[in-house]
Fold this protein.
Amino acid sequence: MKVKKDDASKKQKKVKKKAPINMNPFQSVGTKLFFYIFGGILACVLTMGIMAYNQSKSIIENKVSESGQQTISQLAVNLNNTLKKYDDLTLQVMVDPAFHELVGTITDKQLGEYEKFEATKDISSKLQSMIFGNDNINGMALIPVDSSANIITAGSAQHSKVEQLKDEPWLEEVKELNGRTVWIDARPGGLIANNTSSASFGVARLLKNTTSSQAVYVLVLDISTKGILNELDRISLGEGSELSIVNADNQYMVHAEASKVTTESVFKLDGSEHNSVSTTLEGIGDVLLMHNVLEYTGWYLVGNIPVEELVKDAEVIRTLTINLAIIAALIAVGIAAIVIITIGRPLINLRNLMQEGAKGDLTVRSTIKKRKDEIGQLSSSFDQMMEQITYLAEQTKNSADAVLMTASTLTDASTKTAISAKEIAVATEEIANGSTSLAVEAERGNDITHMINEQMQQVIHANEQMVQSAYDVEQASGKGTAYMAELIEKTGMTEVMTREMVTKVDSLKDSTRSIVQILDVLNAVTKQTNILSLNATIEASRAGNAGKGFMVVANEIRNLADQSTQSIDVVAQITDRIQSEIVETVDVLSKAYPMFQEQIHSVKEANVIFENVQGQMGGLITKLEEVTRSVQKLEASQHVLNEAMSNVSAVAQQSSATSEEVASLSSEQLSVSDNLVILSTELSEVSNALKETLSQFKV
């Protein structure tokens, strides 16, 4: 009851807190409308200006890109013509018959050194005359294909630098191309001539004799980049633009700064023949990049124009956009001020009136009634709402008084009903507790009988296993007795065989002694034979030539006697070994014979034990059968007891369920009575709270 009162008071406090007195100016509708109008106008102006600026920038970039690409393409044609002159110059040397005649003189081994020197001098003069015709050629050199010829230079070409070119990979490529030109990447210090002011690149061709198809020299031209730089300087793509030539590895071949030659370029090309893209370069910014492939060298003519320089004229649009944005901001401020005066202030007045009504003053009314727009309609609706709330408050106050009187009467009746229900519930609960105890005891007895039944089943099962085990042991004892009888018989036979073996080994021992005696006789015969052979040899030597034949026979007899002695020694060793093994065998059999006798005695005793076990197991089986019959009778009695306890448990459970049902009904009745009391109390509290709440309104 106290909890309900606290909840009602908290709700009242919450109602009071919901009515704000002061409001953040930035949360005002007028302020929001100001920002909406100001931001919308400013956003539109800035968007239009930025779009116009970007569109102008895009148009300028496209136009400059098209014109720049055309300029790059035309410049590439001019550079190709220039490079073609150098290619034609190498071709002119290759097809010159006089040149090949001079080369033939140099390579002719039958001519003297003077003729070769003159031919070398003439070749150098020819090359020098070609250099005079072109200021961009620093020097020429003829590199021999093999080591039989010497290097020939012209112009500013240096012999030491030409020597260093022999190990470079492009030289092998020139030989494999078999007469076609190879363009050599530019180098800052010159290819074969010293040139510190600018870089130079080269072109090389294998000079094959058109008649014999033999090649002795590779022609190398050192070409300065100044001529190409002059052509690049004549072309301007725009303010801040830059023209350069790079190879397929993105390394500068021709650049206004000689130190950048062979360094990596700041841009990456896509490998197409010609293209124009807008990209961002490190250290430069946004640029318009255009390139075209040079036909002869495979290098790229590249031009880049800073976008910032291109769009200088478009800056006017950006400035105009900023000015328009400032003007639009001023206009937006004026419009927003009008909106705040015509809309924001009336809404603030209505808000203040609503706050007064939320505090409980129902007499407040709006003064904005002359306007015909939505705000005027909102003011009229506010006055109608306050009149309706006043009427409802008066009606609610009267209803609360009537409900309060009814709640008091209902509380008294509910209290009396609750007291009676409590007494009935206590009595019913005592009956239910007794029935429950009886059911629990019956269930416990039933569990005990089930436990006894399970243990009886285990005893019966164990008894059956014991009977089966006794039968198995009896059968095993019978088999053991049979096996022991057979073992006794076989052991006796083994004893007889052992005795016979001892006898035979003894006779073998005697035979071995006879062999030894025979070997002694043979040894004596052998010795006599040796003495006889020696005497015969002596007599044969005395007889001289007449006794030579007899001496041969005497030698053979002596050799035969020696062999007999060796054989007798071997047989004597074998006989000694056999005799020693026979002695060991006799010793082992002498030791084994008493063991056989002990074994026979043990087997006979084990047979007696098996017979005793078999007789005792027969008596045990008889006793186990008697125990089995007794257990079966006890099992029948256990079944009868189990059925009786089950019936008692069922009756007790039914009685307990009936008592619990009655107790449950009594509890429900008691709960209903308590709820009636609580509802009556709450109704009374709500009526009082409603009355207090309505007293806050001024009617």
Q: What stands out?
A: The two ends are 31 Å apart (CA to CA).
